[in-house]
# Entry
Amino acid sequence: MNIRTIGEYGKVLEAAGLLKNRVSETVSERTVSQISCFSREVRPGTLFLCKGAAFRETYLSEAVLRGAVAYVSEREYAAGREIPCLLVRDIRGAMAVLAETFYEHPADFLRIIGVTGTKGKTTTAYYIRLIVDTWLAENGQRPSALLSSIENYDGVSRTRAQLTTPEPLELQKYLRIAVDAKVSYLTMEVSSQALKLQRIGHMKMETGVFLNISRDHISPLEHKDFEDYFQSKLQLFSHCRKVCVNLDAEHVQRVLDAASCAERVITFGTCQEAEIRGSGIRMEKGRLCFRLMMPGYEGEVCIPMHGTFNAENALAAAAACFSIDIPPQMIVKGLSTAKVSGRMEEYKSRDRKRTVLVDYAHNRLSFEKLFESVRMEYPGQPVFVIFGCPGGKAYNRRKDLAQVADRYADRIYLAPDDPGPENPREIAREIMSHFHRKRHACVYVDDRGEAVRMALEEAEPGTILLVLGKGCESTQRYADGVRPCLPDGELVQMALDEYDRKHDASA
# Structure
């Protein structure tokens, strides 16, 4: 990163229409060697950002003591009187602009594919990454980068993701590392919060993918209503040269209208009008199969994953890769080996009498699609489900998920799923209040692993157990902080091992 002065950063903010005051000549030449919003990371020469609803003046005091050269804020603080203040109209907008400038606009040197939607972002991003990497390997090039809700890969190292889309400073750092590592392509999930809070700044993407939209993330901490959520999602298009739109999605005309600002709109779906089209969607021997039709190609695709709804994600990935001129044969080859950790992972007991599916499904749309697919793939078999709802946000899920489970599941086990500031029992009690048909076929269990063990023992032969909501996540958020936990797949395997030992002994 180039060393810039306070004055230069002031000019950048002024050009963006964000700066409210003037930078005095006496301080404008002071150099900035680092930008941070974490006081504990401040060292001499740091430009400190006062951001977030939880910001406290004591953080600025610590930053000053550690050697901050100036601070950026929407207001002046007494704690910062010893150092200059860059007063801004919008701290989040300022943070994005400053991050892009500090890391020298790395997005300009990458071909980025961004994926948004209520469900399927992670699976689609992994499908895209796998296709891109298959194609790059054929051409002797190094693998692409990834920013997802599971993991991040910047061309150098892999790290577990903390946010679906990182905050600006972290995001631009990832992109810079990728550029310096000679990575050419990057696939990233783009959340509604990232768009609403300007985390991606002014960066341009090669292609944006709009999967679907349904009511979710409605809470005081996220979106005040569905319109706010929808509008945030639609902002993706202003960052994209080309866009891929799912013609099977709800509110599709409104999505297409918003997408018209792009240079090129590519459509996908199962309807005849779609440019990238799938038909004959079915499950065959544990594989998702369908016929893929796209300009210059028609043929069968088989993906080693459960869930007919994943055809939507595969078509989205095909459309995105088509937009960057990857040959159809490479698209099919990439999809043929596609698997995603914590997404429709199948586990079976040794006696084959118990089948468990682990999936990240956590909102109404993903629940409906999953249950419909399970009923299609396992007709007439009992379905048990384990799930929970987060605390402090997305309050609509408690009713939404209850209604879907009430309609499809034969037995329901409620267990903690990031309860945060709330008591998980109270969350479960609220979920239960929305049951009607299955009011007496529901139980709350404090531990997800114990819930799996109970379900396996109580299930009759042929039962399909769905463990939903956490996927491969290895932490739980409680009122006292983040606690480590085993991913659902590991909990399931441990419970199945116990079940196998018990039933092998009794056989």
Summary: The domain at 106-335 is CATH 3.40.1190.10 (UDP-N-acetylmuramoyl-L-alanine:D-glutamate ligase).
